Amino acid sequence: MGTKMKSLLAGAAMLVVLPGAALAQDAAAGEKVFVKCKACHQVGPGAKIAVGPVLNGVVGRKAGTFEGYNYSEANKNSGLTWDEATLKVYLKDPQAKVPGTKMTFKGLPSDDDIANVIAFLKQFSADGSKS
Fold first, then answer.
1. pLDDT tens-digit readout, 98-131
2. Cβ proximity of 57 and 125 under 8 Å
């Protein structure tokens, strides 16, 4: 097999591997992106319901279940659990994932920003403490 063919095969093999590679998550970068979310959501000790629910402990939480927040029927009845895969899709386009949600935010277009926000949110346990 010639050198050109080996290079072509090696390049093709990398293309097959790259799309499945997990995005690196950077909580510090996610905190900066979360500034866009702060108009409606709070995290950390003492976080309170604002326009949207508190996001402490959101990763792994069943959708529509934060005590005291008045969710849309669409969200309450979605049957979703906010695992990382579901959050990735939701944060890209909330209305597409949960038609009828009260969340009017258009979504985060960058996959890196989404991964980083998830990393930031994963730090907060249900009581607001960082793990």
1. 999 999 999 999 999 999 999 999 999 999 999 8
2. yes
